[in-house]
Write a structure and sequence with these properties.
By secondary structure, the protein is of the alpha/beta class. The protein is built from ten helices and 15 strands.
Length: 326
């Protein structure tokens, strides 16, 4: 199974449509193996809840192939760690306060100059000294546009954190009065120690003792953040990945934000395209504002993108909704 998932992910991450036939063949085989036996039950359902195990945590279920369409064209999808966790999420659905801030969005952070990529994959526990170890985070050209376009959908009820304001301190101070928390920033995956994986925010020129360094790491989210957000969106690269823990799913940024109080997290399974991701996110929030549930809003946004110039799965299938669909 693991080899099938790895190969399917490899094909799904191709930006060209040249390998579409091979991809759909693999996608059909995985659908037949994983979901077809339950198709009579799925056909009468409004949505599909996936509770994955092992390598299935990294499988882009939206890109599985059923008959003559991608799975996402048939039903909206969401994922959960377990049936027990999902039941608890449904019990604790929040009541939106009329004066609550609808959106807090972070994007276009500033990075220290004159750096290189020398330390990027070392995975050491001292990632807090990032600026001293010469990391290089290139600007995301469409990050600002993503934040601006989303915030415009919540006039008077959103807060933008851009440039020097997109700080780790500001993210930690968001608190429980925000409905949607959005990060249009780089994601940093530490495969050796997933508690060091991070959302990359504005990095100071020098790191001072006792001050934040711009990396909002998973361990800090676990220990220092308390949210009551309907949704946290991590639109950077590989933010939905982590270390497999038996019975616990993937340990990383997604789990950290869920522990901190997010009712669901939208995160990526691979290195995503900056421009197309900005388009996908704008479509997603437009549908949310129009009253769609989170899973259906994601479904409609993915369908819009896949049908635009027959875009291959690389551009739209990399995002998964983990947690409550409502």
């Amino acid at each position: 199974m693991r080899e099938q998932v790895v190969e399917f992910r490899r094909l799904a991450q191709q930006r060209s449509t040249i390998s579409t036939t091979a991809l759909q063949g693999r996608a059909q085989a995985l659908y037949d193996l994983l979901l077809k036996p339950a198709e009579p039950q799925l056909a009468t359902s409004d949505r599909i809840l996936v509770i994955p195990d092992g390598p299935l945590h990294t499988l882009p279920f939206a890109a599985l192939w059923r008959k003559d369409q991608y799975l996402i064209e048939w039903k909206p999808l969401h994922m959960a760690v377990s049936a027990t966790v999902y039941a608890e999420l449904k019990k604790t659905r929040r009541s939106i306060q009329p004066n609550a801030l609808q959106l807090a969005a972070f994007g276009a952070p500033r990075y220290a100059k004159g750096s290189s990529k020398s330390g990027l994959t070392r995975g050491n526990a001292d990632l807090r000294s990032v600026t001293e170890r010469d990391f290089n985070f290139s600007p995301l050209p469409f990050s600002r546009e993503e934040v601006e376009s989303i915030a415009a959908l919540f006039p008077g009820r959103s807060q933008k954190y851009l440039d020097a304001d997109a700080t780790e301190e500001a993210a930690k101070a968001v608190g429980k009065q925000v409905r949607y928390l959005h990060f249009a920033t780089h994601g940093l995956l530490d495969e050796r120690d997933p508690s060091n994986s991070a959302v990359v925010l504005t990095i100071p020129e020098t790191v001072q003792e006792g001050r934040d360094n711009g990396l909002l790491q998973a361990w800090e989210i676990f220990e220092q953040m308390r949210l009551d957000a309907d949704l946290v969106v991590l639109s950077g690269c590989r933010t939905g990945l982590g270390q497999e823990v038996s019975g616990e799913g993937l340990l990383g940024l997604t789990r950290a934000f869920q522990y901190a109080g997010a009712h669901s997290v939208l995160a990526s399974l691979w290195s995503v395209d900056d421009r197309r991701t900005a388009q996908l996110m704008k479509c997603f929030y437009e549908h949310l504002v129009s009253g769609a549930s989170k899973d259906r809003a994601l479904q409609m946004a993915q369908i819009e993108l896949l049908r635009a110039r027959s875009a291959p799965p690389f551009y739209w299938a990399g995002f998964s909704l983990i947690g409550d669909w409502q």
